[in-house]
Amino acid sequence: MDWIWNVLWPVLGLLTGFAAGWLTKRSLNRRHESRALNELVTYLHLKRSLAQIEPQPAEAGPMEARHRSAVQDLRENVMETLAHLTPGSGAVEVLMRMSAASNRYLREVAADPGSYQFALMELRRNLDEDLRILTDGRRDVEYLSPGEAPARKGPPSSSQGGTSPTGGTTLPSGTSRTRQ
Predict the structure, then answer these.
(1) In sequence order, what are the residues at sequence separation of 6 or more whose Cβ sits closer than 8 angstroms to the Cβ of residue 139?
(2) Is the full-model pTM beyond 0.90?
């Protein structure tokens, strides 16, 4: 009867080690996926082209081209994020919808450049819905509204530190450069 325990203990040890390794790999993959999704959410949040506006018919010109380029960059970023997801992830479907919405925007604007603001707001609505799905609590991803990052207000004042006209860093007044 001792021979059963002599065989069973190593087998149980092997199975326990395998399970621990598998769970660790799964946890690392999930953390990597959450990091990639959070980076995408932040990217979309900072994308000023997606800021809420009252759309109006507009002439095709430099602004339309700028927004088209921004949406192309957005689509590339979504596709890069797809590469960081684990196979079978629920986020794959959401990112595919985001990519399809970007493609739809590009098609509509190519057909009617004057309606780019309307198409842009439709794209924003679609992306916002998809971001809410990504951040519904099942993942460790924080929701940020697309294009809603506060605009930066001018250069920092010299009393707060910043960059000097020569490119060097300025320090707040009363601060010395010596290490303590």
Answers:
(1) 33, 34, 37, 91
(2) no
